Amino acid sequence: MDAVGTVRGLAARFWWLLLVRGIIAVLFGIIALAAPGAALSFLIALLAVYFIFDGVTSIMHGFSERGSGKSTAWYYIQGILGIVAGIITLAWPGATALVLLFIIGFWAIVGGITAIGSAWTLRKTDQTNGWLWMLITGILALIFGVTLVVSPFDGILSILWLIGIWALISGIFLIMAAFTLKSAGKGASA
């Protein structure tokens, strides 16, 4: 069997995985747009689970490296911090969301100022007007960051809407891809 036939055979068997991913993405997109608070709670819970899982796996990695002569202390420290971060995230989800939003806001402000400064420096030597795009990028990042810091709740809502729109669109495309693969798979079995 050639490579194309193998891929078509896999498509015929596993097209439904893309369909499930697409349906989940569409459902999450609808929830994020209709009930952003529920979507935020889900994302925070998912982040907490990730922190805890990452912490546990770091500790396990430390145990697995014990006899190798390598220092394992950092694995344990990272693991403990991950588990603690997960527990804190579960205990205070609202505070976690706010802290993350401020981090993103300040990161965007610093990035925006840096881009504006770079554009100003490039302006003198750049013959292609690339500095102008850098300036626009910096201004947009600065506006985005200041908006998040000054109005954090509106910022969270806006980000959730963007995530919801993205999830909805990507979910629709995944569903379309699933049915296309299903059809391609039928062609392979014929």
Automatic annotation (TrEMBL):
Cell cycle in keyword set: no
GO cellular component, one term: plasma membrane
Keyword Membrane: yes
Record protein name field: HdeD family acid-resistance protein
Pfam family, one: DUF308
Keywords for the protein's UniProt record, in alphabetical order: Membrane, Transmembrane, Transmembrane helix
Transmembrane parts of this sequence: 12-34, 40-61, 73-92, 98-120, 132-153, 159-181
